[in-house]
């Protein structure tokens, strides 16, 4: 395999090849995602919801993110691995942000970090980039700020917020970020942002006119079934398939159908 790098992603934007990105939090899933050809694997802080069952992304810790990230790193041959800096590990001051990013890089072996926000975390992003750590930005719906907004509805519908987002995207490019995730914003605005910067824009609920797409793996394979935003396309219904398989197993154990002779020593 030829490894995906931050450089190859920027080249993909230049040549018009769309970038595919999915989350993974563990070795077994990451192995499937990588070998199926996904370009970027995000060890997202959505692990807080998907893996740990929390209502928001806020509770997950840096240590827990490092555990998930190192499990993913052991599985990958090709994809670029990006890890979310969790809530509380970078907002206090730029030095703390750099320390957190260094811990992720050293202790997990991942290739890049992702931080939520624009202007307000400019100094932290600068410091991390100065240390040679690639940074992916994240604008629009930023789930770590859920209590500031109160809802997970579409962001930047108002002119003022849209302008601020465009400015933030240009600032992230200028600082040296290699890509930006845009979450849940109008397709028209996402298109404008993608046209205005030369680094790849990866959308989730940001329409088709961006440079790549990202989804949460467990949502796109239908393992979760209570989360149904418009932007989510389900490729499997694993919640149902797994439930049926497991019920069948329970039944087979109860009726002593399992194990049979050929399954015994
Ligand atoms: O944590 C996550 O899964 C994310 C993606 C939704 C972009 O940040
Ligand atoms: Na995230």
UniProtKB/TrEMBL annotation:
It is found in: Cytoplasm. 3-methyl-2-oxobutanoate binds at residues 45-46, 84, 114. Its EC number is 2.1.2.11. Its main location: cytoplasm. Its cofactor is Mg(2+). It holds the Pfam family Pantoate_transf. It comes from the Bacteria. InterPro entries: Pantoate_hydroxy_MeTrfase, Pyrv/PenolPyrv_kinase-like_dom, Pyrv_kinase-like_dom_sf. Keywords: Cytoplasm, Magnesium, Metal-binding, Methyltransferase, Pantothenate biosynthesis, Transferase. Pathway: Cofactor biosynthesis; (R)-pantothenate biosynthesis; (R)-pantoate from 3-methyl-2-oxobutanoate: step 1/2. The active site is at residue 183. GO terms for biological process: methylation; pantothenate biosynthetic process. It catalyses: (6R)-5,10-methylene-5,6,7,8-tetrahydrofolate + 3-methyl-2-oxobutanoate + H2O = 2-dehydropantoate + (6S)-5,6,7,8-tetrahydrofolate. One of its GO terms (molecular function) is magnesium ion binding. Mg(2+) binds at residues 45, 84, 116. Binds 1 Mg(2+) ion per subunit. One of its GO terms (cellular component) is cytoplasm. Homodecamer; pentamer of dimers. Catalyzes the reversible reaction in which hydroxymethyl group from 5,10-methylenetetrahydrofolate is transferred onto alpha-ketoisovalerate to form ketopantoate. Belongs to the PanB family. This is 3-methyl-2-oxobutanoate hydroxymethyltransferase. It comes from Jejuia pallidilutea.
């Amino acid at each position: 395999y030829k490894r995906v790098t931050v450089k190859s992603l920027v080249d993909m934007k230049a040549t018009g090849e769309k970038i595919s990105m999915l989350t993974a939090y563990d070795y077994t899933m990451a192995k499937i995602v990588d070998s199926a050809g996904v370009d970027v694997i995000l060890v997202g802080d959505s692990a807080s919801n998907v893996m740990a069952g929390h209502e928001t992304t806020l509770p997950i810790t840096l240590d827990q993110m490092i555990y998930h990230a190192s499990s993913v790193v052991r599985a990958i041959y090709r994809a670029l691995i990006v890890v979310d800096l969790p809530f509380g590990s970078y907002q206090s001051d730029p030095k703390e942000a750099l320390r957190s990013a260094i811990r992720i890089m050293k202790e997990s072996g991942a290739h890049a970090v992702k931080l939520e926000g624009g202007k307000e975390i400019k100094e932290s992003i600068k410091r991390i980039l100065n240390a040679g750590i690639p940074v992916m930005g994240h604008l629009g719906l930023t789930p770590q700020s859920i209590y500031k907004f109160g809802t997970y509805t579409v962001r930047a519908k108002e002119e003022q917020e849209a302008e601020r987002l465009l400015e933030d995207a240009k600032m992230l490019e200028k600082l040296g970020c290699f890509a930006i995730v845009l979450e849940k914003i109008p397709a028209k605005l996402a298109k404008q942002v993608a046209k205005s910067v030369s680094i790849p824009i990866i959308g989730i609920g940001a329409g088709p006119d961006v440079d790549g797409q990202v989804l949460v793996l467990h949502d796109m394979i239908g393992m979760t079934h209570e989360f149904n935003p418009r932007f989510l396309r389900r490729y499997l219904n694993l919640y149902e398939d797994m439930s049926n398989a497991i019920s069948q197993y329970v039944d087979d154990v109860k009726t002593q159908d399992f194990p049979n002779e050929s399954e015994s020593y």
